[in-house]
Amino acid sequence: MAFITRKQHHYLVLSGLLFTFFWTWSSAFSLISLWLNQKIGLRGAETGIIFSIVAFTALCAQPLYGFLQDKLGLRKNLLWLIGGLLLASGPFFVFVCTPLLRFHILPGAVSVGLYVGATFFAGIGALESYTERVSRIVGFEYGKSRMWGSLGWAGATFIAGMLFNLDPNLNFWMGSVSACLFLGLLWWMREVQPNALNELEFGKSNALTISDAFGLLKLPNFWALVVFVCGVSVYNVYDQQFPVYFASLFHNVQRGNEMFGFLNSFQVFLEAGGMFLAPLLVNKIGAKRGLLLSGLIMALRIFGSGMASDTLTISLMKLLHAVELPILLIAMFKYITTQFDQRLSATLYLVGFQFITSICATVLSPLAGRGYDQMGFADTYMIMAALVLSLTLISSMLLRGDKPQNDLPSLNLTTR
What we know:
GO cellular component, one term: plasma membrane
Structural class: mainly alpha
Distance between the termini: 36 Å
Membrane topology: Multi-pass membrane protein
Largest sheet: none
Number of domains: 1
Subcellular location: Cell inner membrane
CATH class: Mainly Alpha
Number of strands: 0
Keywords: Cell inner membrane, Cell membrane, Membrane, Transmembrane, Transmembrane helix, Transport
Mean pLDDT: 82
Protein name: MFS transporter
């Protein structure tokens, strides 16, 4: 270990953790709507119920994960728990979820929702916020590390469509193999030791109390962020059953499955490049403008998907996600760390962004599923795009500019 620096060690290990987390997530989840539709036989509304349970589970777990990670600071306890859940992906989907779904949709939907929500949709927020905190302390750009998460998703998705046509269970088992690597990297990672300057900047995490977290609810700027997130959270609902729509545009559904895997993989490879470049753009235009730009691109992507009538056009719309998501994530962390107390960064990310996203998905997923069944995908996408655009325009008046704010004096965080 002597031949690499502290900064290089944490960059490499955290990049590897993000890579293997997203590989497992993609293996188990990227084609789950196809699995539910083609292998289990569920319709759009039934699949929407499952995604709603996923979102509800995530919104219950995300505030807990966020506060725990802020309380733990730089300790890895929560990441070990998440690693154990990742490892269980193969046996859980094969031996628990599949039999339950074939027996009755309700216990099956609950099993899928609880596992996916707690493991992936809540777990990723804890891992990303941990990585962002370490990156500030050690001194590397978060976006360059997060780029490897996108590459992990792209790598798994590239072969997921082919494996799906052979046997969907192969994807689930591939996720468990990747989780073994995640746990190995977590064991290898050294504990982060902040210096005196870091302690002064971030404060002592163990001094945080639950009242500090609830104090965020008193801040107008927090609610302004919530309004923005309610708009951009639509992208999760849009993505949920998009593979079904995409595959339906092909004469051969199996060919559509494979092509979606290739398209999604190419999109995420582009997204990885975006993660590398997005910090440059966001640092130039500012966090607020970065957030608004991502919202406008998202509205364009969803609107274009509703207008598209062929596979080439809708593929191009899907690829806009590679531009939108890196800007959104980088700008979100920049906004959080400049407008709020940095010791609550994990809570803010998991509550202000991930938690609100899950609430919206809980409400919108069954509505979207019903819309797909009754109006069709195209008309439902047009409604989604209008919602994103409206809330983004409102947010342009509510979000603060990029001057750092000392917005938490009432929480007494700086006196502890």
